[in-house]
Design brief:
about 150 residues; alpha+beta; six-stranded antiparallel β-sheet; 3 helices
Length: about 150
Amino acid sequence: MKALGLVPSTTLISKEIITPSEAVAKALGINISQKIYLIIRLRCADNMPMAIERVHLPFHRFPGLENEDLTKSLYEVLRFNYRCENKKAVQCIKAGSASDKEAELLKIKIGKPVLYIRRTTYERDGKPFEYVQSTYRGDKYQFNVTINK
């Protein structure tokens, strides 16, 4: 957002420690009985809602994360406080329609186009540390991809 001349901001909607679903546990490479953080944030640009993020992180890897300021860059918090640096991420992007709750948070009409993105992020040792489910406004967001051969 900064590169586009916009002022980014984040609103923390909720944070909790939960037991993951089978899909989330599998994405994080953990046992279903292990606890995770579920952090839901609203990402904005120039105070306009752009995306809803549902971030899943293994509790054992980031003890005390619930005490951090989660309105700041999450990757900076993870890098500086937990020595966690991302090496790669795998994403799946698909089109969809905004649900009632998504429309309310993103300040769009119910059923408007959105982009659903699922991402698993990996540390340098190849272990997954983050699974994110995001909903982006379809009218204000675009993805630019460069593929090098």
